[in-house]
């Protein structure tokens, strides 16, 4: 199944590999359709001849297909019985088995149709929830990131060839000390890689979403604010202090940038074991969050309760809720060092200014600009390893050309692992296991 499970107008089943055309023929009484031309065909169970559907079928002849193998697509009516009937019929055809998660993309990679970063881009595109996540995924799927790493790898290979020439023919007419002569170009390359690494993890944040945690004492209106921002009743609100215990997450799309807003238990000392577990979880989330929204009630402001004052660092945004309880509330952003917003959730006041501030923060945390960005820890670790190898090379180059060559070779390998040119076998299960089935 290439489409989602469950009832749908149309569902797509796809088959890849040398038996694909035979499978299609087994389900129809007519000859194979012309490659890449959609045809309507009645599908029958090959064993008992039962009519399964009138489907739209496509045949992609190898190598002109997504996987590079013969591919057949059955665009069937998306009902339970149709899908069960067709999948059941297919499963009884010899040589066919259900695809593994990511297996189509994996085969496309193994057949040389894309590098690993492009395959990862496909998965990111399927997972993308906001416009900018989509843009980043399309860029990576189109090969921009892979091309950058491949360019660096080629430059390293060239340097390596010169160093090896120096080792193999030390007395020939080569310019004196090749190992040193490649140093400036490798230094420039290393600097470029470090700049690429020093991206504030923007690409990874854009892919994963920025986390925004709501913190504060019980009853200040954290869950009310979450519901208002999410525009739905995601969390229970009540006037009983200690209502929220579990961590509650809602996904936000802020001008195309992804964020997760996280509601937590009100912070207080309590003997109640469930509530104190909630408080523990709240503090744990606070530690890992990208943005902390610290809520207080208007009556506790500007003189803040001590435990709350302790939560405020320069990263935190102070939100003063229940502004309607003030005599003459002035809503919106307040002057002062700490970013502070007076709001009223019940009166729907001051929220626009708060949202504008959040959107701006989220944007600056994951704005990647024009250049392709690192989107996962796998890339970051390999790049860092390449940089470390090059720095070792700069140390060792004078002393020993053979050791120096080995450092450059290891840096080349580290880059090659990102696009899947080397050490592929150990990587594939990791990369493709997070894909959808049918992708
Ligand atoms: N029905 C359907 N929709 C789909 C896909 C699919 O496989 N099937 N895709 C995939 O998941 C995406 C489209 N990507 C595709 C990429 C390449 C080829 C392909 O046949 N490539 C051949 C021929 C190119 C040509 O002649 O233009 C090739 O590259 O050799 C097909 C789909 C999104 N929509
Ligand atoms: N007057 C006033 N009351 C509010 C406002 N926002 C929330 N409340 C009320 O404050 C009470 C507590 O709201 P919650 O959203 O449950 O508070 P909380 O911070 O999630 O509380 P815990 O989950 O116990 O930590 C409810 O009765 C809300 O209706 C506001 O802007 N003004
Ligand atoms: Mg709550």
Draw up the topology in text.
Layout: E1 8-16, H1 20-27, E2 39-44, E3 51-60, E4 71-78, H2 80-91, H3 103-110, H4 116-127, H5 131-141, H6 144-168, H7 178-181, H8 183-197, H9 202-208, E5 210-216, H10 222-230, E6 248-254, E7 257-263, H11 273-288, E8 291-297, H12 306-311, E9 317-321, E10 332-334, E11 340-342, H13 351-366, H14 377-396, H15 401-419, H16 424-432
Parallel strand pairs: 5-7, 5-8, 8-9, 9-11
Antiparallel strand pairs: 1-4, 2-3, 3-4, 6-7, 10-11
Helix pairs in contact: 4-5, 6-15, 8-14, 14-15
Bound molecules: the ligand Nc1nc2c(c(=O)[nH]1)N(C=O)[C@@H](CNc1ccc(C(=O)N[C@@H](CCC(=O)O)C(=O)O)cc1)CN2, guanosine-5'-triphosphate and magnesium ion.
The ligand Nc1nc2c(c(=O)[nH]1)N(C=O)[C@@H](CNc1ccc(C(=O)N[C@@H](CCC(=O)O)C(=O)O)cc1)CN2 binds at residues 12, 60, 64-66, 73.
Binding site for GTP: 219-224, 238-244, 263-266
Main location: cytoplasm
Function: Exhibits a very high intrinsic GTPase hydrolysis rate. Involved in the addition of a carboxymethylaminomethyl (cmnm) group at the wobble position (U34) of certain tRNAs, forming tRNA-cmnm(5)s(2)U34.
Keywords, please?
alpha/beta, 16% strand, binds magnesium ion, Four Helix Bundle (Hemerythrin (Met), subunit A), four-stranded antiparallel beta sheet, Gyrase A, domain 2, 3 domains, 439 residues, binds guanosine-5'-triphosphate, Rossmann fold
Number of helices: 16
- Average residue pLDDT: 93
How many structurally independent domains?
Answer: 3
Q: What is the molecular shape?
A: flat
Characterize the structure shown.
The protein has 439 residues and is an alpha/beta fold. The chain folds into 3 domains: 8-98, Probable tRNA modification gtpase trme, domain 1 (Gyrase A, domain 2, 2-Layer Sandwich), CATH 3.30.1360.120; 131-199 and 374-432, tRNA modification GTPase MnmE domain 2 (Four Helix Bundle (Hemerythrin (Met), subunit A), Up-down Bundle), CATH 1.20.120.430; 205-366, P-loop containing nucleotide triphosphate hydrolases (Rossmann fold, 3-Layer(aba) Sandwich), CATH 3.40.50.300. 45% of the residues lie in helices and 16% in strands. It contains 16 helices and 11 strands. The strands form 2 sheets. It has a 7-stranded mixed beta sheet with strand order 6-7-5-8-9-11-10, sandwiched between helices. A 4-stranded antiparallel beta sheet has the order 1-4-3-2. The relative contact order is 0.12. The ligand Nc1nc2c(c(=O)[nH]1)N(C=O)[C@@H](CNc1ccc(C(=O)N[C@@H](CCC(=O)O)C(=O)O)cc1)CN2 binds next to loops. It holds the Pfam family MMR_HSR1.
């Amino acid at each position: 199944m290439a489409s989602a499970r469950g009832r749908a107008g149309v569902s797509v089943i796809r088959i890849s590999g040398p038996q694909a055309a035979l499978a299609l023929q087994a389900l129809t009484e007519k000859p194979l359709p012309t490659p890449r031309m959609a045809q309507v065909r009645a599908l029958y169970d090959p064993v008992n001849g039962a009519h399964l559907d009138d489907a739209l079928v496509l045949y992609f002849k190898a190598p002109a297909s997504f996987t590079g193998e013969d591919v057949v697509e059955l665009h069937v009516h998306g009902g339970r019985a149709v899908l069960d009937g067709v999948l059941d019929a297919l499963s009884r055809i010899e040589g066919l088995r259900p695809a593994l998660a990511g297996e189509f993309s994996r085969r496309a990679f193994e057949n040389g149709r894309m590098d690993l970063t492009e395959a990862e881009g496909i998965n990111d595109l399927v997972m993308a929830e906001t416009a900018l996540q989509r843009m980043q995924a399309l860029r990576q799927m189109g090969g921009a990131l892979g091309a950058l790493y491949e360019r660096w790898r080629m430059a390293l290979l060239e340097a390596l060839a010169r160093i090896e020439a120096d080792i193999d023919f030390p007395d020939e007419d080569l310019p004196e000390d090749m190992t040193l002569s490649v140093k400036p170009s490798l230094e420039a390359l290393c600097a470029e890689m470090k700049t690429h690494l020093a991206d504030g993890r923007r690409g990874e944040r854009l892919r994963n979403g920025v986390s925004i945690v709501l913190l504060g004492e019980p009853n200040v209106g954290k869950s009310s604010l979450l519901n208002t921002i999410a525009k739905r009743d995601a969390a229970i609100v009540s006037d009983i202090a200690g209502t929220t215990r579990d961590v509650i997450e809602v996904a936000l799309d802020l001008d195309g940038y992804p964020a997760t807003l996280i509601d937590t238990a009100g912070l207080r000392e309590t003997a109640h074991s469930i509530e104190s577990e909630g408080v523990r979880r709240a503090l744990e989330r606070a530690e890992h969050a990208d943005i902390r929204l610290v809520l207080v009630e208007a009556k506790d402001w500007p003189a803040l309760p001590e435990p709350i004052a302790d939560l405020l660092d320069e990263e935190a945004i102070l939100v003063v809720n229940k502004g309607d309880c003030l005599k003459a509330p002035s809503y919106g952003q307040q002057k002062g060092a700490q970013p502070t917003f007076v709001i009223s959730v019940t009166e729907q006041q001051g929220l626009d200014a708060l949202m504008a501030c959040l959107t701006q923060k989220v944007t600056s945390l994951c704005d990647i600009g024009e250049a392709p960005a690192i989107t996962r820890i796998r890339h970051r670790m390999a790049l860092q390893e390449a940089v470390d190898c090059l720095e070792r090379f700069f140390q060792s180059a004078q002393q020993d050309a053979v050791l120096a060559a080995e450092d450059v070779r290891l840096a080349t390998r580290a880059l090659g692992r990102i696009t899947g040119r080397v050490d592929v076998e150990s990587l594939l299960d990791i990369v493709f296991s997070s894909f959808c089935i049918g992708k």
